[in-house]
UniProtKB/TrEMBL annotation:
GO CC annotation terms, alphabetical: plasma membrane
Identification of the protein by name: Undecaprenyl-phosphate glycosyltransferase, DPM1-like family
InterPro entries from the UniProt entry: Glyco_trans_2-like, Glycosyltransferase_2, Nucleotide-diphossugar_trans
A molecular function GO annotation: undecaprenyl-phosphate 4-deoxy-4-formamido-L-arabinose transferase activity
GO BP annotation list: lipopolysaccharide biosynthetic process
The keyword Transferase appears for this protein: yes
Pfam families documented for this protein: Glycos_transf_2
Keyword Glycosyltransferase: yes
Domain annotation Glycosyltransferase 2-like: ranges: 5-166
Entries under PANTHER family matching the protein: UNDECAPRENYL-PHOSPHATE 4-DEOXY-4-FORMAMIDO-L-ARABINOSE TRANSFERASE, UNDECAPRENYL-PHOSPHATE 4-DEOXY-4-FORMAMIDO-L-ARABINOSE TRANSFERASE-RELATED
Length: 237
């Protein structure tokens, strides 16, 4: 049975980690897969690391990494991907906005698809965030020939062997469906629940996300155009 690695980036989420662990293990224990939970602390300045260490000491399925400095969500995910030893990698935010109860539904499609991306159809965020995200997805889709409604949804199920081939740079976690497709992945979007953030604060604002996102989209457009599509016709050993 394929092993699952849950990879969760954490930056100042002390109010959320224990509840997330409870909800996630409740769902994961019911899956028929062995699993690990990889908590990646992106140099939190609150009590997150202390809570992570207690969980890791008490539960053998919990592993953790902690950064020396704050490197951002893409870096936390990338480090997690490289350290994960599962065949399937599932990502989600640490802030309880994603609902672990959606995982079995997403997993049903794994096999037929190599990546299943959540789609927050009824998103519980501020209006400005929802508008910003709409514009972001529209521009991203137009410039990268994509059709993904909600690339920012962190709840994603991915084939580890493909994901580990991707070199991720800052900001590129927002392009994972496209980068996975470049690796040959079949990608599906599935509607998922979304909850309002109760503890802690969002780490992003629209302006910063917009400026960085535009820069990133140009890089990804270049990657798609320059992607090597080699199909070997013949070879000898
Ligand atoms: N995060 C991180 N490093 C950062 C910023 C965010 O690891 O520098 C984590 C954060 O703790 C959360 C996830 O990335 O688990 C998404 O962040 P956030 O919820 O602030 O983003 P939003 O949902 O508001 O887009
Ligand atoms: Mg969030």
């Amino acid at each position: 049975m394929e092993k699952i690695s849950f990879v969760i980036p954490i930056y100042n989420e002390e109010g959320n980690i224990e509840e997330l662990f409870k909800e996630l293990t409740c769902v994961a224990d019911m899956l028929k897969h062995p699993y690990e939970i990889l908590l990646v602390d992106d140099c939190s300045s609150d009590g997150s690391l202390g809570i992570i260490k207690v969980l890791a000491a008490r539960h053998k399925q919990v592993r953790y990494l902690s950064f020396e400095n704050n490197c951002g969500q893409s870096a936390a995910l990338y480090a997690g991907f490289q350290h994960a030893d599962g065949d399937i990698i599932i990502t989600m935010d640490a802030d309880l906005q994603n609902d672990p109860a959606d995982i079995p539904t997403l997993l049903q499609h794994f096999g037929e698809y190599d990546m299943i991306n959540g789609w927050r159809a009824d998103r519980q965020d501020t209006l400005s965030k929802k508008i910003g995200s709409r514009i972001g997805n529209f521009v991203r889709n137009r410039l990268t020939w994509e059709t993904i409604h909600d690339t920012g949804c962190s709840l994603k199920v991915m084939r580890a062997s493909m994901l580990k081939e991707i070199r991720i740079f800052r900001g590129l976690h927002r392009f994972l469906p496209t980068l996975m497709r470049l690796e040959g992945a079949r990608v599906l979007e599935v509607p998922v629940h979304h909850r309002a953030r109760v503890h802690g604060v969002s780490k992003y604002n629209n302006l910063q996300r917009g400026i960085e996102g535009l820069y990133d989209v140009i890089a990804v457009r270049w990657m798609i155009k320059r992607h090597l599509k080699v199909r070997i016709k013949e070879f000898n050993d």
